[in-house]
Amino acid sequence: MKRRGCLRGCLVGVGIFLILFGLLPFLIPVSTEGIDPRSLVVDGGRFITVEGLQTYVVERGEPDAPALVLVHGAFGSTFTWRNQLDALAEAGFRVIAYDRPGSGLTDKPRDFRYSQRNQADFAASLLDALAVDQAIWVGHSAGGNVITHLAVHHPERIARLVYVDGAVLGMSGPPAPVAGLIGVAPVYRWAQIGMRTVFSRETLAGFLRGFYADPSQATPEVVEGYWRTFQTPSWEYGLLGQSRDATDTRFDEATLRGITLPTLLIWGERDTVTPLAQGEQLAALLPDARLMVIPNVGHQPMEEAPQTFNVALLAYLTSDS
Questions:
Q1: Which pTM does this prediction carry?
Q2: pLDDT confidence of 157, banded at 50, 70, 90?
């Protein structure tokens, strides 16, 4: 009888916990307010509609010049490429930087599928919206994963590939069961509450300091440039959605060996996020790839050594092969 009573008590306790877990988060108010993204435009960008999303795009150069698309990584935005936009345009390219869905000033709907595969399909739709047939694609970190999916599923939209410390080999999302849990309403709500409570300007600054070999690169001005886009309404939907949908980030060796597009890899020697060993392995797998290592910089070579980065990139883009 004691055992039966104990079991009954345990079941009651579990039931109460589940009820509280399922109901309590919806009793806690969560603000979805923020600053209108249009009031945060500082670099001459504009909004275009792509797949129903208001998408933030910054362009430089002549409309009929060869198109070059810059794809940022996690926590990034068009701000990531501030040191490249003008330099690449002056070299004769139509430079297109955009905020990926879930990031920057672009819309962040809760029900959008933020998987890297779908981000690649979205990138192809971006070209359609801009009336561009084919482009050179430069992908940083998680943006490198996006352009890999683009190369696999939309190779006709690519002239050349450029990986910048690309998160291709080492990137993997949460296990499918965990990712699935994020989609459960109470779990998602708890995660939203936690994100709104914990994530701050200083939290972001801590991430940024870890991206640079020299943490002092994360100046107040740089932190503000990144933090600016986290002032938009429901910004956490983008981060949560990217975690929920990050289940298709792996590529087998056969798939990578099948990407025969001309490819440059630019890597920071002291990258601790996507270490140089990953760049060396990726360069060995891609049939038409060359690797350029920038010494004494980390995960953000285009920010830590912009002049060296720009010279290396332009030397490759203006070469015959």
A1: 0.90
A2: very high
